[in-house]
Specification:
The protein contains 3 helices and no strands. This is DUF1127 domain-containing protein. InterPro entries: YjiS-like.
């Protein structure tokens, strides 16, 4: 006996769940990056070539 073929509803559901999971993972990564950068000293940020005031803009720029 063969398993039933997924319908277009099932395909859309799987696609939606994968998109939701991808967004959750991206949000978690962005929060972790934000915490990491916020914990860095001015010297470490300068070594990266960015200032503290640039951090929020950089995170927003690469969010999606």
């Amino acid at each position: 006996m063969n398993a039933p073929k997924p319908t277009s509803f099932h395909q859309r559901l799987i696609h939606a769940l994968r998109g939701w999971r991808r967004r959750v993972v991206n949000r978690r990564r962005a929060r972790a990056d934000s915490r990491h950068l916020a914990g860095m000293s001015e010297h470490e940020l300068r070594d990266l070539g960015i200032g503290r005031s640039e951090v929020p803009g950089l995170l927003d720029e690469h969010r999606y």
